[in-house]
Write a structure and sequence with these properties.
heterodimer, A: 409 residues, alpha/beta, Aspartate Aminotransferase, domain 1, Aspartate Aminotransferase, domain 2, 2 domains, 4-stranded mixed β-sheet, 14 helices, 14 strands, B: 83 residues, mainly alpha, Non-ribosomal Peptide Synthetase Peptidyl Carrier Protein, Chain A, 4 helices, 53% helix
Chain lengths: 409, 83
């Protein structure tokens, strides 16, 4: 029995998906032409699954900042900030985000995944108890695993259920409750009632940590996220986010209303024992922060496109998972049908995400779209048209799929 | 609520597992929840929340990581519901 034998069931599942067409988890673009266009072979593809919410990846100022940083300080940092020092770009970005959020402390990390891994493991000690939304992202789950803290899940987006579980837990001897939620959830695009979570968390003497990876830059009058949109930004204990979505780079941050958060730089292993983000990544993100602050027009277009797409797909009879938001997910009957439809969309010029269990809530199979402020009305009409065509060809596709799978057996 | 018996807990687990077991695989105490019944990790945690609410207990995630079989889950709940 080989080391890889344990992956045989997974391999079998992947083989089924591949029989339908392209490997949906290994798409290779031959070129990326703009925030909304890619190329595979000689086909131009509308990109509708990139999380490039503000479309800043090709912004001239962001690109110029990244290029200048390479000219000034080179291509890499070659080590961690603890062991190898901090660059001016790191502190500039931390100050810019702290100012933007109106918080005294901000720490920058090398990826979004590492941000939550680091911050959660730095904040929760052995005697603390973490209360985590049931639909929390993998990096939050993995962050809790790096702590010695007990972790309790509560029902998704349900402050009353959190209240019940906090009451059930009772007094936490020698520790505190750290409640971890997200602003907008990445799979369904549904939004947390942060104001209600704040009330419940603080009533029990706990701290609220919000991952705004999919909402920083996208919501709020100045783009600080859902907490700002709901008017409670100044009460949230910790807010994390990533640079790889609206900030059009790679990295992440965690900001806090508690100045004492700074001490965690000396204990967070995913901060201390990994290379710091490169000058170019940090500088692109720094330029994007300014774009976000003045990006009301980008957010307005993104919102308009979200309503346009949501209405169009609803009218076609698609079962959508949440109200209009930059993430719009259509629930499909099962993984095989979703994979088949995902392939047809790619073959016909639209790239969306195929999302399947266990990475999805309620074991759903989804065609997930993430919109961009760079999408035009025509782009969204094109996506809607392809989904309309898909509905029409789906029965034939299904028959073909069954035939080809039977032949393969 | 009086302390539930091992059989009662087993019955409750079977009831909660039912929607995730469409092929009606036999559920034994020795059944691996993920390995034999092929319940995915997200669904396991949904079942755990159902058990927490039914018995008014907290089952921390780190405890769930060590539970592989229906029997181990039954034993864990017996421990948590014991006064």
């Amino acid at each position: 029995m080989s080391l890889f034998e344990k992956y045989a069931p997974l391999q079998a599942r992947l083989d089924v998906v591949k029989k339908v067409g392209t490997d949906p988890f290994g798409v290779k673009f031959d070129d990326i032409l703009s925030p909304t266009r890619g190329r595979i072979g000689n086909r131009e593809i509308v990109l509708a699954g990139t999380n490039n919410y503000l479309g800043l990846t090709f912004d001239e100022d962001c690109m110029a900042a990244a290029k200048k940083a390479i000219d000034d300080h080179g291509t890499g940092t070659t080590g961690s900030r603890i062991a190898n020092g901090t660059y001016e770009e790191h502190t500039d970005l931390e100050k810019a985000i702290a100012d933007h959020m109106g918080m005294p402390s901000c720490i920058v990390f090398s990826t979004g995944y590492q941000t939550n891994l680091a911050a959660i493991s730095g904040l929760a000690g052995d005697k603390d108890v973490i209360f985590m939304d049931a639909d929390a992202h993998a990096c939050i789950i993995d962050g809790t695993r790096l702590t010695g803290a007990s972790t309790i899940r509560f029902r998704h987006n349900n402050p009353e259920d959190l209240d019940k579980r906090l009451r059930r837990q009772g007094e936490i001897e020698g520790g505190h409750a750290l409640v971890v939620i997200e602003g907008m959830y990445s799979m369904f695009g549904d939004i947390a009632p942060i104001d209600e979570f704040l009330d419940v968390t603080h009533k029990h003497g706990g701290y609220l940590f919000i991952d705004e990876a999919h909402s920083y830059g996208v919501f709020g009058p100045t783009g600080c996220g859902i907490a700002e949109e709901q008017g409670v930004l100044d009460k949230v204990d910790f807010i994390s986010s990533t640079f790889s979505k609206s900030l059009a780079s790679i990295g992440g941050f965690c900001a806090s209303i508690h100045p004492e958060f700074e001490i965690t730089r000396k204990v967070m292993r995913p901060y201390m024992f990994t290379a710091s983000p490169t000058p170019s990544n940090v500088s692109a993100a720094r330029a994007a922060v300014d774009k976000i602050k003045s990006g009301g027009h980008l957010r307005a277009n993104l919102k308009t496109r979200a309503f346009q797409l949501h209405k169009g797909l609803s009218e076609l009879g698609y079962d959508l998972c949440a109200d209009p938001s930059p993430v719009i997910a259509a629930r499909r009957p099962n993984e095989a049908i979703a994979a088949m439809e995902w392939n047809w969309l790619l073959q016909n010029g639209v790239y969306v995400n195929l999302a399947v269990p266990p990475g999805t809530p309620q074991s759903s199979s989804l065609l997930r779209i993430s919109l961009s402020a760079a999408h035009s009305e025509d782009d969204v009409n094109q996506i809607i048209t392809k989904f309309k065509d898909l509905k029409e060809v789906s029965p034939n596709l299904m028959a073909e799929m069954m035939k080809s799978m039977q032949a393969a057996e | 609520m009086s302390e539930p018996s091992r059989d009662e807990i087993y019955e409750k687990i079977c009831e909660l597992l039912k929607p995730y077991n469409p092929q009606n695989r036999p559920i034994k105490m020795s059944s691996g929840i993920m390995s034999d019944l092929e319940v995915d990790s997200t669904a396991v945690f949904d079942i755990i929340m159902g058990l927490e609410d039914h018995y008014d207990i907290s089952i921390p995630m780190e405890m769930v990581s060590d539970i592989k079989t229906v029997g181990e889950l039954t034993t864990a709940i017996m421990g948590l519901t014991a006064s």
